[in-house]
Design a protein that fits this description.
Elements: H1 25-152, H2 188-191, E1 206-209, E2 216-219, H3 234-242
Antiparallel strand pairs: 1-2
Length: 261
């Protein structure tokens, strides 16, 4: 009995002796084979579809891998670019700090030079003021010496044989300089040390300051000829020798405008 359990007949089972008895057993086998064929065909179709799905999934996986590699490459490039930008930022910051330090150094140098310039200006101003003060002091000393000599000079005509002489000529004027103090008589100690100008003798020489403080003359009155000798600028040395202790004003006095006979 091939199909005693009521289930489908097993494959490979040969026809039994009852084949001739039941005529429907062959049809059942054919129906069973047809059912198995259709089942196998459906499973093969499903297998083909699954293979196609696997191939599609493999393509998608490959594309995903490529995208992953591209993303990794982009990330690596971005990291490298970020590192480069960070290094550039640090370099620019260091350059900025260096520029600030240089500006501070230049500012300090400018301030120092400005202070030195102001100090030099003050020193020059002080030196100029000192020079002006010294000139005024020398002028006062000269005025004091001239006033002293004028006070020590006797009045004109008090000495015998001495005639005060004033210069006349195209370069003279009646107006007197504030420094003019009148004729100055050379002391007797200096009369023989360079103030004698020939002419023989008689009266003592006298030193006369002309108006304008331009000429100093040594005048000798002679009884015979009465000639007067004038030496322009010659009395400056004697006067400077006499007044050397009061500032040496003789070297400061200008020379005369010429010799007058």
């Amino acid at each position: 009995m091939l199909n005693s359990g009521g289930g489908p007949p097993r494959l490979g089972a040969g026809p039994g002796p009852s084949l001739g008895i039941g005529g429907s057993s062959g049809g059942n086998y054919l129906q069973l084979l047809d059912n198995y064929g259709r089942l196998i065909a459906g499973q093969e179709g499903q297998l083909a579809a699954l293979r196609e799905q696997r191939a599609a999934l493999g393509g998608e996986v490959q594309a995903a891998r490529q995208q992953r590699d591209a993303a990794a490459e982009l990330a690596s490039t971005a990291r490298a670019r970020t590192a480069a930008l960070e290094a550039e930022r640090r370099t620019k910051e260091s350059d900025l700090h260096a520029i600030k330090a240089r500006n501070d150094a230049l500012r300090c140098d400018v301030e120092s030079r400005r202070a030195q310039l102001e100090q030099l200006k003050r020193q020059q101003g002080d030196s100029k003021e000192g020079f002006v003060d010294r000139c005024m002091q020398l002028e006062q000393e000269v005025r004091a010496v001239l006033a002293e000599h004028a006070a020590a000079t006797p009045a004109p005509g008090t000495r015998s044989g001495t005639t005060p002489t004033t210069a006349t000529g195209p370069g003279t004027s009646d107006s007197r300089n504030p420094l003019d103090q009148g004729p100055v008589t050379v002391p007797a100690a200096l009369s023989g040390a360079g103030f004698g100008c020939g002419g023989g003798g008689g009266g003592a020489p006298s030193l006369v300051l002309e108006p304008g403080l331009t000429t100093m003359m040594v005048v000798e009155a002679s009884e015979q000829g009465g000639s007067a000798h004038k030496h322009a600028g010659g009395g400056g040395e004697g006067l400077s020798q006499e007044g050397a202790g009061e500032g040496g004003f003789g070297s400061q006095l200008p020379y005369g405008q010429g010799h007058t006979q």
